[in-house]
Design brief:
Distance between the termini: 15 Å
Structural class: alpha/beta
Shape: globular
CATH class of the largest domain: Alpha Beta
Radius of gyration: 17 Å
Number of domains: 2
Strand order of the largest sheet: 3-2-1-7-8-9
Number of strands: 9
């Protein structure tokens, strides 16, 4: 990312109204990308977790330095494609499961146009029924793993935790931020929030960002996109 452009976004982000919000968002997203690249470079020989791996682009990036990457992907079609895409990587373990705060099974809702273009529309799949760009028709029953338990049982520090789970991030982050000991074992958290698709999540996301701002470790960026 061009450093001058990043400074421009930051300055313009201080403007009032819609223009300021537009540039503040541009700054936050670009800065998250910059932070993520640095976190990957610092992950040599360490553990990383990719929640919502989809086609595996970021899983592969994490695997370029990490000792081990655990990649979660609940959608059956998407997970099969993920396995094909990453079958050359011996340091990636793929878990066909949704990431949540308890173990069990859940309904996974797909984009209404999933069958027309699964590679693109698989990015919208969600276990949150009120998300605006999913259909309740032909929902898939999928396994869910309690990610907090999973991380506790790893018994190792985690360099990067990337979370892109289409609305389920709010429940997960609220629970994770309450676990001080577990948080202390994580170096970086990058999460995409989906309040534009789930308006009821907006006040909870605002509160999560407020809480994250005051946490020194891990570094938490909730502007992943």
């Amino acid at each position: 990312m061009n450093g001058i452009k990043l400074v421009k976004y930051r300055l313009f982000g201080r403007l009032p109204g819609a223009v300021g919000r537009k540039y503040a968002n541009k700054y936050n997203v670009r800065y998250a990308q910059q932070q993520f690249s640095q976190a990957v470079r610092n992950s040599t020989g360490k553990i990383c977790i990719d929640l919502g791996a989809n086609m595996g682009d970021f899983t592969r990036l994490l695997a370029s330095t990490a000792k081990k990457v655990y990649a979660f992907e609940p959608d059956p079609w998407t997970c099969a494609t993920l396995r094909e895409n990453l079958n050359d990587l011996s340091n990636v373990e793929i878990l066909e499961a949704a990431a949540g705060t308890n173990d069990g099974t859940v309904q996974l809702f797909r984009h209404p146009g999933f069958e027309n273009d699964p590679r693109i529309n698989s990015q919208s799949s969600s276990i949150v029924a009120e998300k605006s760009n999913i259909s309740h028709q032909n929902a898939q029953e999928v396994k869910q793993i309690d990610v907090l338990r999973f991380m506790r049982e790893l018994g190792e520090d985690i360099s990067v935790l990337k979370i892109d789970i289409e609305g389920a991030e709010v429940d997960l982050l609220e629970a994770l931020l309450d676990e001080t000991e577990l948080l202390g074992r994580i170096s970086n958290i990058f999460a995409e929030t989906h309040e534009t698709r789930i308006p009821s999540h907006e006040p909870r996301v605002v509160e999560l960002r407020r809480r994250a701002y005051h946490i020194k470790k891990p570094k938490i960026n909730l502007y992943w996109e």
